[in-house]
Amino acid sequence: MNIDKNTRKTKKTDNKPKTSVPIVDSLATALSLLNYFTVREPELSLQQLCEKSGLYKSRIHRLCATLVLSGFLVRMPWSTYRLGPKLLTLGKIYESTNSMISVARPIMKALAGKTGESVALFALEGDISYCLAREYGSSRLVFSIQEGDVMQLHASAAGRVLLAYGTQELRDKILQSAVLDKFTPMTMIDPKKINAELGRIRQKGYATNRGERELEVAAIAAPIFNHDGTVVTALAVVGPVQRFSDEHIPEMSKRLMASTDRISELIGASLYR
């Protein structure tokens, strides 16, 4: 089989979502480059994009030039790239019209005020979760998370909620992974233990995580139900481990679940708990 040398240097697994409608491959490839920019790597060189994507420099150069012309990327004087202003415009439009964010935001602010902790809204995207929105509490010591940050499902409270209430296919995919990342000595990576924990989450209606993602950070998360009873978002209260003791969890979980129930109601869901 001949592979266009301007397309790929190495054969990689195709992770594009399946669709019955034909897609424009070059457009999909160009837009996929935007996913490599993160809070930790906001500026990337042509070489870095080449290494991350597996594409040849000649093709990346043309794709980036197109994205620059469209305002999705900005080329810096030193020849690196940053995300462009068009994304900010589209992001603001998305936020103003996305019912989940607009509904959840005031409830998140109220919850952050009551608990003093950071509150974050996580959404399911494939087999990972990402931060859709966040609000900081009044406490001087807060957990810093940026909107757009990505987390693995098995090692976070919100991720395990999304796993527990997700499809069996998703659970099988995660639990049957060859290797689950161990972020700290506390990270749960035994598939049998994780599966048992998912059952407990469905019984309690919330998940907890103490020091599994970061040693000094703890979280409690609960599901948000859509109008059809599915769960693709979860709300989490996050803060220092010492403030998430067994004494504090019951009251915190009560406030959290009252907030997720309210959001679920406002987006048209019946109460499934």
SSE layout and pairing:
Layout: H1 25-32, E1 43-44, H2 46-53, H3 57-70, E2 73-75, E3 81-83, H4 85-97, H5 99-115, E4 118-125, E5 128-135, E6 150-152, H6 157-164, H7 168-175, H8 191-204, E7 207-210, E8 217-225, E9 231-240, H9 249-266
Antiparallel strand pairs: 1-3, 2-3, 4-5, 4-9, 5-6, 7-8, 8-9
Helix pairs in contact: 1-3, 5-9, 6-8
Overview of the molecule:
- By secondary structure, the protein is an alpha+beta fold.
- The protein contains nine helices and nine strands.
- It has a six-stranded antiparallel β-sheet with strand order 6-5-4-9-8-7, with helices on both faces. It has a three-stranded antiparallel β-sheet with strand order 1-3-2.
Features:
six-stranded antiparallel sheet; 273 residues; Arc Repressor Mutant, subunit A; 2 domains; alpha+beta; 9 helices; disordered N terminus
